[in-house]
């Protein structure tokens, strides 16, 4: 199972973007040290650092590793770009994104046959022509008995199932985008999960 982490500066100033770039580099380095595959899915950069980035983690230790990064990160340092600025505390957030539904293919669909409904005595009742198709990854299922043959019902069931999955995926993608948008404004200033100090980002 892959885990996606989103690094957000919450539209913070240049100092937050500098910090976010460091956090991304450190996260990638720590993941490699733990035997975890880390891939940058997307990132938005500027001359100071990054505004945001999404990293996908894969590996047996990915779940535990991700928890050590989820939350608010704090950097205590005089501004390297505004020397006279009185502020010395800069914050960014790292959030876990919702997991998308797997794309359905033939290997993920289980078909079951059963007797179709209808009035007693009809031919459609005497054979197991109805078909239930279930997508094992999501648990979504459909039942089709509108066609006379099992083959035709199976084909139709697969078509309807894929349509349902596509609709669910579209809804989840919307949720995914909304979650990323909301997280831009949800960086909490208190109780940081990790704290770094100085221009060399020494961790407390």
Automatic annotation (TrEMBL):
It holds the Pfam family RF-1. Residues 115-131 form the Prokaryotic-type class I peptide chain release factors domain. One of its GO terms (molecular function) is translation release factor activity. Belongs to the prokaryotic/mitochondrial release factor family. This is Peptide chain release factor RF2. It comes from Neisseria wadsworthii 9715.
